[in-house]
Design goal:
single chain, Rossmann fold, Hypothetical Protein Tm841, Chain: A,domain 3, six-stranded mixed β-sheet, 11 helices
Length: about 280
């Protein structure tokens, strides 16, 4: 059986990389001042954050059923026998749930893996799926393996400003004002694909140190039974400068010496809520 692999741009995989890897990539839509744009197609990171910073109204959306079905049908038309689709975590979007419903009419030929991941950990899962497909594994077998490994990941994110969390209704205007005055930076966690408040810290540097320590603790406790050699150390951000990216990597290397730190821009769907300047760290297995 020839198994096609499909994901969305929340993995951080670009159109160019998707072509090189031989996988199908669903561009995620974002709404800016009432107009729909598609990540890595009709809008890029620079364009999105320029619009957001200028005060544009931005919100996330999900692919339409027709867009998802169209990509599946294209894969079958191009000669694939079955498909494994790995969308962003169901904890942050309804697109996974929608895809599962649509797949029911394909008689098992389309398998939707709820991998409970986003950004670099999702990317690593997609690369794993590509490797398994090349080895001849079935779509159902790949789905089973990715879902079995889904929770073997941890992410922490801090924001540069509370403005966009306030706009998204995640914190009150009063809390945002107080936090700005006190230079409080919230630290959010993504575990099992769900975004939750984790801690508060004073200043950007302290937030980064707190996140990296939390990640190190996860490696030594939650994931202590796993092979440390299989651990991947990840970093991500929204519209970061090269200096900020280097700082992020250096902080991770201090706690995880000798490791390769994988960096990707955070997907626009996350950036809608965090704004530019957000920084994230993570590990996955």
């Amino acid at each position: 059986m020839k198994t096609a692999v499909m994901t969305d741009t929340n993995s951080g995989i670009t159109k160019k990389e998707a072509r090189e890897l031989g996988l199908y990539l669903m561009p995620m839509p974002v709404i800016i001042n009432g107009s729909v744009y598609y990540e890595d197609e009709s809008i890029d990171e620079a364009g999105f954050y320029a619009a957001q910073s200028s005060g544009a109204e931005v919100s996330t959306s999900q692919p339409s059923p027709g867009e998802v079905l169209g990509m599946w049908d294209l894969a079958f038309k191009e000669g694939w026998d079955e498909i494994v689709y790995i969308p962003m975590t169901s904890g942050l979007s309804k697109s996974c749930e929608m895809a599962i419903g649509l797949a029911a009419s394909y008689g098992g030929k389309v398998q939707v893996a709820d991998n409970h991941r986003i950004s670099v950990p999702l990317r690593e899962s997609v690369l794993r799926a590509v490797s398994l497909a090349k080895e001849g594994h079935s779509a159902a077998g790949i789905k089973e393996q990715l879902e079995r490994e889904a929770y073997l990941a941890s992410i922490y994110i801090t924001v540069d400003t509370l403005e966009y969390l306030k706009k998204g209704g995640r914190i009150s205007p009063a809390a945002a004002m107080l936090g700005t005055v006190m230079q409080i930076k919230p630290v959010l966690s993504i575990r099992g694909g769900v975004l939750e408040a984790f801690a508060k810290s004073r200043g950007r540097k302290n937030s980064l140190e707190l996140m990296v320590r939390a990640l190190k603790k996860d490696a030594e406790t939650r994931f202590s039974s796993l092979d440390p050699e299989s651990m991947r150390v990840c970093a991500a951000g929204t519209a970061l400068s090269q200096e900020e990216i280097d700082m992020l990597k250096a902080a991770l290397l201090e706690e995880f010496p000798g490791r390769e730190v994988l960096y990707n821009s955070l997907p626009i769907s996350v950036g809608c809520h965090t704004g530019p300047g957000a920084m994230g760290v993570g590990i996955c297995f």
